Amino acid sequence: MEIQRIDGYEDPRFSQDVLAQHGAFVCDGECFGFEIIGKNHAIIHSKSIEVPDILIDEFRFYAEHIDCFYNDKGQLIKQFNPVELFAIDLRQIQPSQFFVDEDKVRAVSSFIHSTHELILPLTLISGKYVSLDGHSRMVAAIQKGISHAMGYLTPPGDYIETFVQEAKARMVFSPHDLKTLSHADYQVQWDKFCDDFFSRVNEKESG
């Protein structure tokens, strides 16, 4: 089974709401649009009657807090145990990233209107909350004067501590310190940093 997540914001196969939430997937040629409609609910838009469990699992890799999935008719098709959420001041969060893409900040700003729409995967490192994702959403929230988020704890990847060290070296200690770049500059500075980092990791593992 081949699954592709659509990262762009212009694709006529999906609604703008789905694209803004990065909920657009193509699975074996079929389109599935995950639209988050509440703090833990999502509608799956699809012409297919069946939604593969592996696809829902793939979506939840990016949005673990979504535990109820409905079809276009409003019928519940999949439910998971709820994830515990807690309120947290954005200034208490250490980013694991140091740049954000202004295009993505603009896109996610369309659905971030309050604390309860800003739900972040966090982990604890040396007693400090670290964000594993959602950096663009945090910047969009700050621009709107939102000071708190809802978080949930999840295990980090092996690379996170190294990314946090690099963020601190660049004087990024909270989402307020994240630097917004043009899409082109983001690709050069952030994407290249990630590519170079994981390339070195792969070289060490293969060597």
Could you say how many structural domains there are in total?
2
The CATH architecture of the largest domain would be Alpha-Beta Complex
- What's the helix count? 6
Shape: globular
Q: Can you identify the CATH superfamily of the largest domain?
A: Conserved hypothetical protein from pyrococcus furiosus pfu- 392566-001, ParB domain
As for the CATH topology of the largest domain, it is: Conserved hypothetical protein from pyrococcus furiosus pfu- 392566-001, ParB domain
Question: What is the residue-averaged pLDDT?
Answer: 93
The radius of gyration is 17 Å
What structural class results from the helix and strand content? alpha/beta
Low-confidence stretches: none
In helices, the fraction of residues equals 25-40%
Query: Order of strands across the biggest sheet?
Result: 1-2-3-4-5-6
The ordered H/E elements are EHEEEHEEEEEHEEHEHEH
CATH class of the largest domain: Alpha Beta
Distance between the termini: 31 Å
Share in β-strands? 25-35%
* Total strand segments: 13
What this model shows, in words?
This protein has 2 domains: 3-79, no CATH class; 86-206, Conserved hypothetical protein from pyrococcus furiosus pfu- 392566-001, ParB domain. It has 6 helices and 13 strands. The protein has helices at residues 16-20, 53-62, 102-108, 135-143, 160-169, 183-206; strands at 3-5, 24-27, 30-36, 41-45, 68-70, 76-79, 86-89, 93-95, 99-101, 119-125, 128-131, 148-153, 179-181. The strands form 3 sheets. A 6-stranded mixed β-sheet has the order 1-2-3-4-5-6. The radius of gyration is 17 Å and the shape is globular. The chain starts with a strand and ends with a helix.
